[in-house]
Amino acid sequence: MLYESTRGLSDRVGAAQAIREGLAPDGGLYVPERIPVFRTEEMAAFVELGYQEQAGRILSEYLAEFTPEEVAYCTRAAYGAGKFADPRIAPLRALGDGSYILELWHGPTYAFKDMALQMLPHLLRLSVQKTGGAAEVVVLVATSGDTGKAALEGFKDVPGTSIIVFFPLEGVSEVQKRQMVTQEGSNTYVLAVAGNFDDAQAGVKEIFADQELKRRLEARGKEFSSANSINWGRLLPQIVYYFAAYAALLQKGAVQPGDKINFAVPTGNFGNILAGFYAREMGLPVKKFILAANANNVLSEFVRTGVYDRRRPFYRTVCPSMDILVSSNLERLLFELTGRDALRISEWMQELEQNGVYGVDGTTLGRVQEIFWSDWASDAAALTAIKETYSRYGYLLDPHTAVACAVYERYRDAAGDATTTVVVSTASPFKFNRDVARALLGEEAASTHDEFALPEILSKYTGWPVPPGLQGLDAKPVRHRRVLRREEMRDAVAEILGV
After folding, report:
1. Please, are residues 411 and 375 in contact by the beta-carbon 8 Å criterion?
2. Mean pLDDT of 363-388
3. Rounded distance between C-alpha atoms, residue 452 and residue 473, angstroms
4. Choosing from 113, 177, 288, 431, which is the catalytic residue?
5. Strand locations in 294-431, DSSP E?
6. Whose CA is closest to 17, among 52, 63, 56, 53?
7. Percent of all residues in the chain with a pLDDT value above 90, rounded to a whole number
8. pTM for the full model?
9. Can you give the pLDDT at residue 106?
10. Distance CA 83, CA 89 (A)
11. Residue 14 contacts by C-beta under 8 Å, 6 or more apart in sequence?
């Protein structure tokens, strides 16, 4: 199994090289040269497997250079005893209306990014060993909230690595910010960017493209890699939980082998839902992906019109991890849906970079709409969904998952589709205390309490326990205080690395 770039100008490489590099030299994203397909009976057999074994089965299809023992080591290290609060890793909860919630937030940072970022450091270390890489891998991360903490926790004190995380100063929740700026570890660096996530992401891409800085790093035995979902090693583990959800539905008797299901996914950088697309291409019987956006609805507009236009106001919402206008992983989807037409992909991405907009052809749009349906939900709609879901079912949503629930309800009304649907839940509600409290207790009650006093208030009101790792965050010492402008990011990295 080799990997090729979506831009078509880089040589094909093995899995280890693709994971080690993160971004292809031509600026494209690595994708597997072919997508393995599971038969219905093979997917039905997943019912008999635990999450680690399911992960091993899927990863092995894409990691030809890795021995079975190495793959098993990675799955144990990521999902072994004590790593996740729930032994099922990604439990599936029935809401009671025929839909289900897939909880992806039982890992150490209480966000779905743990599903991949507990795995990536081990894949990356093995990849560097296999390819004779540098003595130290420097992981660069731009985060809209959850990726940063999950990556920091995954790479903390991992030998042969260091990690530098950039987050938008005013674009994450207080809990997310406190999780990052109190991060421990001798190899961790956290810097705030005076701007939004797109500023941070663009700055990181510029650093990756800086050939002079790369040469100076190489002279010191260092090289860059990525923990964002542009790295195939980050995206690959996310495919697993779509198969795990289907196996859980089979086990519950909610569907029979071969029955189609829907997934509703809150979407920002398009990585989470793209993993679902790859699961579908591998044979998972998915009827529709319901792409849920917030007020930064560039993806929703694209699904409806075929025009991707980031030339619009940027909104800070109650869903900071979705406050994104440049969704990098869409490039992979378009590569697959155009029959791997690298020339067209390069032209579209160049138009986006130069003009801020591109439009796909009608055939490609038709393929997108065959697989995806999309709408967006406002902050008010998200808060209403939190309140109504708790009132009806006693179930507590975070704002991102609430957006997915609100958009799914619209889809069901518009399409009249009663297909069994799984809503992908991306974060613990206790990571967004202020807005969950606003939804349940009202504006006045939420505003009269400190952000870090609200978890206990919510817990008493709902009976839901506060996750241990989110208790006492305000008492932890702040270790990372630096704030930068986007144009200062490169020099800051050079300074940290001594190059």
Report:
1. yes
2. 98
3. 7
4. 113
5. 307-309, 357-359, 372-376, 421-425
6. 63
7. 84
8. 0.93
9. 97
10. 9
11. 1, 2, 3, 64, 65, 130, 131
The tokens for 196 are 């939004």
DSSP secondary structure code for residue 7 in this structure: T
Where are the alpha helices (H) located in 132-210, listed in sequence order?
146-155, 174-181, 197-208
Alpha carbon distance 187, 75 (integer Å): 23
Instruction: Supply the DSSP symbol for 111.
Output: B
Q: What is the C-alpha separation between 74 and 122, in angstroms, rounded?
A: 6
Cβ pair 285, 258 in contact under 8 A: yes
Instruction: Provide mean pLDDT across the span 294-306.
Output: 97
214 is catalytic: no
- Which pLDDT belongs to residue 194? 94
CA-CA distance, 165 to 475, in Å (whole number)?
A: 22
Q: Cα(240)–Cα(424) distance, rounded to whole angstroms? A: 13
Q: In angstroms, rounded to a whole number, what is the distance separating the alpha carbons of residues 83 and 74?
A: 13
Catalogue all structural domains in the chain, each as residue range(s) with its CATH number: 1-125+231-464 (3.40.50.1100)
Report the C-alpha dihedral over residues 148, 149, 150, 151, rounded to 10 degrees.
Answer: 50
The candidate with the shortest Cα–Cα distance to 229, out of 204, 212, 210, 211, is: 204
Q: Which residues make beta-bridge pairs with 163? A: 139, 188
Helix, strand or coil, per DSSP, at residue 225: strand
Strands ordered across the beta sheet of 222-226: 222-226, 136-142, 161-168, 188-193, 483-484
> Strand (E) positions, 310-454?
357-359, 372-376, 421-425
